[in-house]
Amino acid sequence: MRIILMLVTTLMFTVATGEEEEEAVLLNRAKPPSHDTVEDLKDMLVVTMQNIVSNNDLVTQLTQKVVQNMLSVGQCKVKMEDMKKSYSEEIAKLKEQIESMKEELRSEIETVDAELKSQIEDMEAGHNTTLAALSGEIREEISQISSEVTIVSAEQGIRDRKCAKVCAGTTGRTSTTWVNYSTTGIRTTTDISGCGFVTVPTVTTSLEGASSHWTNSGGSEIYSVTTTQFVTYINTPPSAGLRSKASEYKWNMEWIAVGYTC
């Protein structure tokens, strides 16, 4: 505003000075100014004053807007400070709640851990008692079984009767592996390793099937008995495709073995 007033004052002073100088020149020349020249100068002065007033209004409006913006910025700052304070308080509350929950969880975990350890100890004690009882029963049953199995003679001599064992099995109606031995014979090897014999057992066998095995021979004659297997040769009437017929008729070896396991 001060600048505008100074400009107006300067302009008016300049105009006045100009008029005085012009009047002096005219007076010196003894020629009066024309009416048009004076009117033009007045019009120029009026336009200049109008522009000054218009600019003054514009400056006033801009000043008001600046003041409003400054007030708005101040209000925003106050609101932001309030929000920061509110958020800080909420965050502090949340932290306290989280810490409280952590403590509760720790306490619950410790309680559950102690309960689990106690239960595990009780279960282990119960299992140990049960295992001890079962071990005693098994030993008693083994003793009774051993007393019922008597081996009067064996390939590798008599041993402790507690080690005597009876084991039985079959090669299976659909799982027996037959091999052609000649035009009239087939053979199969029987696995008895699951019995756990440590000496050569006494083995009794029989050929079982669904058809025609009654015409054969060799079902009870075994070869090469060891602690883990034996071999059987079956003599059949002359026929082509003996091995396929043996599988078709579901021939298999059923056996019982008696021996020592210790």
Task: Note down, in words, how this protein is organized.
Strands 2-3-6-5 form a 4-stranded antiparallel beta sheet, with no helix packed on it. Strands 1-7-4 form a 3-stranded antiparallel beta sheet, with no helix packed on it. Helix 1 packs antiparallel against helix 2. Helices cover 57% and strands 16% of the residues. The protein is α+β, with helices and mostly antiparallel strands and 262 residues long. The radius of gyration is 62 Å and the shape is elongated. The chain is built from 3 helices and 7 strands. It starts with a helix and ends with a strand.
SSE layout and pairing:
Blueprint: H1 2-29, H2 35-148, E1 164-170, E2 179-182, E3 185-191, E4 202-208, E5 222-223, E6 229-235, H3 242-248, E7 252-260
Antiparallel strand pairs: 1-7, 2-3, 3-6, 4-7, 5-6
